[in-house]
Design goal:
The structure is a single chain. The radius of gyration is 18 Å and the shape is globular. The protein is 26% helix and 29% strand. It starts with a helix and ends with a strand. With 251 residues, the protein is of the alpha+beta class. The protein has 2 domains: 194 residues, Bira Bifunctional Protein, Domain 2 (BirA Bifunctional Protein, domain 2), CATH 3.30.930.10; 43 residues, SH3 type barrels (Roll). Helix 3 packs across helix 5 and helix 3 crosses helix 6.
Amino acid sequence: MITQKELQEKFQNLNLIQRIYFFETIDSTNTFGISLVRQNTISGTLILAEEQNQGKGRLGRNWISSKGLGLWFSVILEEKEIFKKPLLSMLFAACLTNILKEMGFKASVKWPNDVLVNRKKVCGILAQTTSNSDSIVIGTGINVNHEKLPQDLPNASSLFLESGKKINRLDLLHSFLKEVENQIGKSISDWLGFWGKNCDFFGEEIRLTSNSEIFEGKFCGVSKEGELILLFRDGKKKFFQAGDTTLKEKA
């Protein structure tokens, strides 16, 4: 199990993180982060828990956060012109993907911010803001050392299930946050290029479900606001702010 002392020692030289909150169990690190934002907490706050019992995913979904097996955490950053919510969550996904590739995993980003290994989801990211603050709370859940997952999640996996090896969770978290620190000062075009290099489905024919509607076309890029750009057969393009993507089945 992770301890507060280990956390402080591990991250003392990381400029991105200025304050750490650690919990054995919490409802949601993002919920706690939002409460801190309303109290005007400082940027660079890390909230980490061994277990969440009300973990949150995108589109209102729940995220199963088993005790001692994964990384369940949120980071609070101050929103600036370049630090927009969609782009920051996409950057976080690309940073983790890049680290996993360096560790030997066949990792990729699924738009906008899911992280896949062997095209199975191992990480989800949820960025949230409040109306009266310039801070963003970016929640991240990584399935690390799970030996099994619920059968009703056939497309989910863990780093252990994909490699057969146990991963040191604090080492992974430190490497990930260090990568974020290295990337965060770069330009939007650099971010999008970095994200694109780690992206799954890019340039392929996909099916996108948005607001209960289904669209099919070629995934041809992302905008500076993080929107997915879909190219239809008639040459027209459509921009999407949210949705679920899958590869289009070949005839």
